[in-house]
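S.,

Sequence below, as promised.
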Amino acid sequence: MLKIKNFGNDRAVDSVTELQDALRTDYKGMHVSIVYSAKPHGMSRVVLVTVNDAGVITHTNNGTGPVNFDELDELRL
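The prediction came back faster than expected:
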C-alpha cells in the first residue's frame, strides 16, 4: 500500500499505476508526500513530490526531475 499525504486530504492506493492516476487527477498544482513501506525491513520512506498543472510529477526537495515510479515500485513491500 502507498499513501498520498496532503494536509488531511490523504489517500491510500494499492498500486503505482493507481498512485500516478490519483496524483495526476486529484492533486494537480500541489506539493504532496508519498509514504510507503520499503524493502527489506518495512521501514517507512517518504518521497516529496510536486504535481504541476499539466500533471507532471517531479521531486520537490532535490530537483532531480521526474519521479521514477518503476524504482519506487521495486523498493516497496
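The first strand starts at residue 2 and ends at 5.

Coffee later?
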